[in-house]
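Sequence in, structure out.
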Amino acid sequence: MTIAVAVVICDGRVLVGRRRGNAADAPGRDEFPGGKLEAGESPELAAARECLEESGVAVIVGPRIDLTLATSSRGPIEIHFHRASPVDAGVLPRPPFAWLPIGDLARCHFPSANTDVVGRLLAGGHAGLPSAEGVTADPSPHGSRDGNGRSAAGHGACHGPRRGS
């Protein structure tokens, strides 16, 4: 099984949620938004779709920043972590997701498959990660996109008021 994860970074903050206490895997652990790829879907598009579905935050997904092999209750999994930026930095994420200062990741309890990504974020914020210029799951009902396949509603620039910190 392949999993795609969006590591959404904006203004020195990262989007983090908490898994339900009764989740089959990593119950009660912190997590970045992500989930299983659908048939024919790229990891980038899956990361954008899952982020929008789980948190309500539309994102521009950029390059893969890590690839981790792990084991879940359903067997082996391949996890693609992608750098992402919000389309609109003013959108409040839906619970259980919230914007956390990157330094607060040290107090979070992520599954072991996230260790390398969390460590890189803590070591240098997001300076060592490539920027997010890529694909988005478009929240508009008409799928409006610019010439680069991005939502015409925005280009992932991290701007606007800080909310949900």
